[in-house]
Amino acid sequence: MNLGILQLFKFLLIFICLQNLNAEVKSFDFDFIKKGQQDENTLLIIGGIQGDEPGAFMAASLIATHYDIKKGSVWVIPNLNFYSIIKRSRGPYGDMNRKFAALSKDDPDYNAIERIKKYIKSDEVKLILNLHDGSGFYREKYINNKMSPRRWGQCAIVDQSTLDIEKYGNLEEISSKVVKGINTNLIRERDMYHVKNTKTRLGDKEMEKTLTYYAINNGKAAFANEASKELNLQERVYYHLLAIEEYMNIMGIEFERKFSISTPEIKKVINNDIFISFYDEKIKLPLSKVRKLLKYFPINKDGDLSFTASNPLMTIVKEGKEYIIHYGNRKLAKLHPDYIKFIEDERDINISIDGVNQSIKFGYIIYAKDSFNIEAIPDLRVNVIGYVNKKYRNEVGININKNEVAKRFSIDQDGNLFRIEFYNGDKFAGMILLGFEK
């Protein structure tokens, strides 16, 4: 092959690969969530700049989903580098927190970096908090390999002591107040927080590339909070939330938390009451104890899987023939698709639950103690997944008892929650979930 043609071929191949990478990353754009009443005293909270730091992005997501802002304004970006979260990687295309000084337009992270820079520079934003999980335990003097000045865990970070701006320029003083507040609520003495001043302007070339230093150079008070990777997830989130609340108190932002701030409660909040709804809530899927594989799951014939999630850290990625439900770093379940044409049907479904008649919409979850009976519906065929009776192709008008539904067909690991699917001929109309215990 001619050398010139070979070089052109290589160039085109690289160009196509870069385009594919950019398209893939763009499909994981980060969420931007505004909370409270818009004012000129906004706190910007950022999690997930590095995808291997779950304490950081989980804490930010809880601010988005489980906090009400009663006074003031909070902006939350819980999944800045969502692609790296899904990949369980510090950064599939390099460390995003080292891309704020200079960056090629060909870099897959370029669009995300440009977008976050606009939020950082917004006039409303007065304080920026970037959340991280760091190694070991930061100490001003060397104690051992895990406790030393080289470690990053359990510290509040500033790039310099002060910044000449109208509000919150006393950076080290503010971070000291935050540290004092956290240290009155330690789980154990080892977890003590300290202030770490990186003194970036004095020649720290790596820190000059970071998000907080970019913010500092644009006249914004910026801090990082680090929880130690030596801690479990709920403990990391606990310390991040303590820090966030201290910053909100300093800014006069009033909030209401929907759970008590303890590690058992945080663990419950992270793992419970999480769900994804599909196709305008035609199907609702609880995820707290979902089975690892759900077979023959109805998906529109065109392959488009539209969904809404209860948490911004959730998404669905197609891998081979299956659809994978991700929650942060975790893969919760695989959906093995049953491709079928979906139709619109807004009718309520009449179901007798333990002898009491109820009118139920598609997408609802209902509970029975002992039995249920679905009233016949014109044009619709009913299939109770897990109930087998060869007499009936359309499972209506039958009193179905709890012990007649096979647990292995449940959608949950406890063998409790079952799919009731509705069809119009060979088209899918909707789904209701029925459980025998809440």
TrEMBL record:
Residues 38-271 form the D,L-carboxypeptidase peptidase domain. CDD domains: M14_CP_Csd4-like. SUPFAM superfamilies: Zn-dependent exopeptidases. It comes from the Bacteria. InterPro entries: Metallo_peptidase_C, Peptidase_M99. Residues 347-436 form the Metallo-carboxypeptidase C-terminal domain. This is Deacylase. It comes from Poseidonibacter ostreae.
